[in-house]
Description:
CATH class of the largest domain: Alpha Beta
Distance between the termini: 33 Å
Shape: globular
Largest sheet: 7 strands, mixed
Bound molecules: ligand MGD, iron/sulfur cluster, molybdenum atom
Oligomer: single chain
Number of strands: 29
Radius of gyration: 25 Å
Structural class: alpha/beta
Number of domains: 4
Amino acid sequence: MIQPDRIVSTTCPYCGVGCNLRVHVRDNTIYRVTSPFDAVVNKGNLCVKGRFGYDFIYHKKRITTPLIRKVPQKPGQRTQAFDRSEWREVSWDEALDYTADRMVEIYQRDGSHAMAVYCCAKATNEDNYLLQKLFRALFRTNNVDHCTRLCHAASVVALQMAIGSAAMSNTASEVILSDVFLLTGSNTTENHPIISLQMKAAVEKHGAKLIVVDPRRIEMVNWATLYLPMKPGSDVPLFSAMAHVIIKEGLMDREFIEQRTENFEAFAQSMEKFTPEYAEQISGVNRNLIIDAARMYGSAERAAIFWALGIAESTHGTANALSLINLALLTGNLGKPGTGLNPLRGQNNVQGASDSGAMPWHYPGYQEVDVEENARRWEELWNIEPGGLNRERGLTTTEILGAAHPGGVRSLYIMGENPMMSEPNLNATRKHMENLEFIAVQDLFINESGAFGDVFLPAAAAFEKDGTFTNTDRRVQRVRKAVDPPGQARPDWEIICDLAARIEARLGRPNSAFWAYRHPEEIMLEMGRAVPAYAGVRYEHLEPVGPQTPVPTPGHPGSPYLYADTFPRGRAKFHPLEYVPNAEMPDDEYPLVLSTGRVLEHWHGGTMTRNSSLDELHPVALLDIHPEDAERLGICHLDPVRITSRRGSVVARAKVTEKANVGVVFLPFHYREAAANLLTNDALDPQAKIPEYKAGVVRVTKARWEELPTDDYQPRGRY
Ligand SMILES: Nc1nc2c(c(=O)[nH]1)N[C@H]1C(S)=C(S)[C@@H](COP(=O)(O)OP(=O)(O)OC[C@H]3O[C@@H](n4cnc5c(=O)[nH]c(N)nc54)[C@H](O)[C@@H]3O)O[C@H]1N2
Ligand SMILES: Nc1nc2c(c(=O)[nH]1)N[C@H]1C(S)=C(S)[C@@H](COP(=O)(O)OP(=O)(O)OC[C@H]3O[C@@H](n4cnc5c(=O)[nH]c(N)nc54)[C@H](O)[C@@H]3O)O[C@H]1N2
Ligand code: SF4
Ligand SMILES: [Mo]
C-alpha cells in the first residue's frame, strides 16, 4: 500500500452536504480520498463523487497558464474557442493588466450598469466576499449574482417573506428525531446522497414515516409509507389540499398559530377552495392519498419538510415554497429538533456564497442594498466616500444576460459558472453571450461559457487552496490546501486582490478599499465585522468541527436549529395562495412534460465530472421514459430519440423505466452533446426570477442512429 506523505482534512467540493474528506497525498499528488468515521456530517460515508471524483484536477484539459484570445472579439460576432491554439499564453501581469484595462475602459465610458459579475458557489466564502466587494466597491454596481438564482431562489424569496431568513431551519441529520418527514421535489439519493442515508436510517432504525411527493418514482419511494405521484407543477393545490384537511379536521397547532404567526384568517379562507377533490383533478393524485398524507403530517409530534428543486425551479416556485411553509406554520413544526423547513441546498458553497453577498439585492449577511443604513455600514468598512455605493438593486443572473446589448451590460466577469450549459433556452443565451463586449473567465477549464471569453485566468481548485465553505445546514467548514496548484494556477482570492489593485490604480483611487490580505482568514474576519451571523467565526474554532451559523461571538457553539423562541421577522406570516398552471402545458404538438435535473455521477454542465474518471460510469445522456409512453412511440430501451421543444431539439438515447411516470420524461442537463437546456423554457417566476426548468413541454420521436451525437459510444455504465 502507498504510504502517504501527508493526509489533509478538508471539505468535499461537490454538493451541499459538505462531507468531511481526508485527502491522501504522495509526491504532491492526491491518490486517495477517505473520510473518518467520527466525521460529524457524514460519519465516514462518501458518495462516488467525494470518494473518486477528485481527479478532474489532473485532467489534461485543465488550464494552467493565463490566456488571451488571439483574434480580438467584437460584440455581435463573438465565437467560442475551445482549442488552446486559439489562445495566446501570457504572463499573469499581462492577463491582469489586460483585464483591468478593458473593464475600466467600459466602466469609464458607460458607467456602473455596464458592469456585471457571476460569482461562484464552488469557490470559498472568502473568494465570493472579495469578488462582490470588487464589483460593488470599485465599479459601484450591484449586478452581482450566482447560480443560486437558477436554484433555490424561489425558496429563498418565500422563506424571507414568511419567516425573514432563508437557510435550512434544522440540521439534516436531525431527521432521525422526526416522527414523520415529507420529502418533495428532491431526488435525495442522487443529489444529497449522504442525507438520503440518514433519511433511510430514520425510517429503518427509528420508525419514522416518510411521505414522498414527486412526479418521478425516485429511489426514496422505496422507503416511503406514502407516495404521491403528482403531475409536475401541481404543488400549490396538492399541499394546500393537505392544509385544507388539517384545518377541517382540527389537526392544527392553535397555540403556535396564535402566539407565533399572523394572517391565519386570510390564509385559512384561501384554503377553502383547495378540496382534496379539486387537488386530485389537477395533480392526478388520488384524493384519499392526499387526505392520508395530511393526517400523517398533521398528527405527528415532530414532522419535518425537506425539499429541493422540484419546488423551486418553477414559474410559481415562490408559491410552491409558500405552500410548504404554510403547512409547517399550521402544525407548529418549527423551532424544535426533528422538525423544520429544510430546503436542501445544492452546491458545496451556495449557502456560503449567498451569505457572502454574491447576490444583486443584498450585501453580505442579506443586508438590502437599497436600505441607506446598510450602504453606510459597508461604505465605512470599505473606506468609501458617503453615498459612493450604488443604492439600486442589481440585475439577476438571467437578467444580466438579457441586458447584454448596447446601453445595457457590456462587461461580464465569470468566476466558476457555466451559463452556456446551465441557463434555460441556450439558443437565446448564446445570442446574449455573443453580444457582450468583454468577457473575463476565472475557472479551471475552458468550459462552454469560457470559450466565449477574451481572457482566461486559471484558478486553483478546492484541493489547492485554503478557505471555508458553508454547507446546506449552515455549517462553516475548513477547506485546506492539500496539493500545490498546477502550473501558474492561483487561488481565486489572490487573483481578485491583484486585479482589484490594478483597477484601483487605473481609476485613480489607489488603496481606497483594502486588498492586501495575507491569508483567507483575514478576509473572513473583515466580513464578520459587518455580518453578525459570521462575527464569531475564527479559523481556530473550525477544528475539528465547524459550527453552524449564526455564530455571533468567538467560541459560540453554533446553532443546530433556528426559531425556538422567535422568527427573524417577529411573527411568521401565512400566505393565501392561488393555483397558477405552468407556463407551458402539454398539447397535441408537444404532448409530454420534460423534467430536467441530475444523475448521481455527474455535476451540472459536466466541467468537473466529465473531465474525471466518473464519466466512465455514466458516459451518455439518457432520456427516462415510461414503458407505456415508449411503447406508444415505438421506442425500445437505448434507442436514439429526438426530443423537440418550442426552443430547440436534441438527440439522446431512451432509458425505458418505470422511474418515469406516464406523460413525464426526464433528461439530465450534464451532457453538452445533448444539452437539455436547448429545450427548457426561460419563463421566470415573477418574484424570484427563477426559470421553469422542470416543466417545459416536448415531443419525442424515434431518431436514426446516425443522428446520435458524434462522441456517443456504447453506454457501459449504470443504465
Ligand atoms: N450528483 C449530483 N448531485 C447534485 C448536483 C449535481 O449536479 N449532481 N447538483 C447540486 C445542486 S446545485 C442542487 S440545487 C441539488 C438539486 O437537487 P434536486 O432538486 O434533488 O435535483 P434534481 O435532479 O433537479 O431533482 C428534482 C426533483 O424534483 C422532482 N420534481 C420535478 N418536477 C416537480 C414538481 O413539479 N413538483 C415536485 N414536488 N417535484 C418535482 C424531480 O422528479 C426530482 O426528484 O443537487 C445538488 N447535488
Ligand atoms: N435544465 C436545468 N438547468 C439547470 C438546473 C436544472 O435542474 N435543470 N439547475 C440549476 C442549478 S440548481 C444550478 S446550481 C446551476 C449550476 O450552474 P453553474 O454554476 O453554471 O454550473 P457548474 O457546472 O457547477 O459550474 C461550476 C464551474 O466552476 C468551476 N470551478 C470549480 N471549482 C472552482 C474554483 O474553486 N474556482 C473557480 N474559479 N472555478 C471553479 C468548474 O470548473 C465549472 O466550470 O444550473 C442550473 N441549471
Ligand atoms: S454527498 Fe455531497 S458532499 Fe458528500 S461526498 Fe457526495 S458529493 Fe461530496
Ligand atoms: Mo443548485
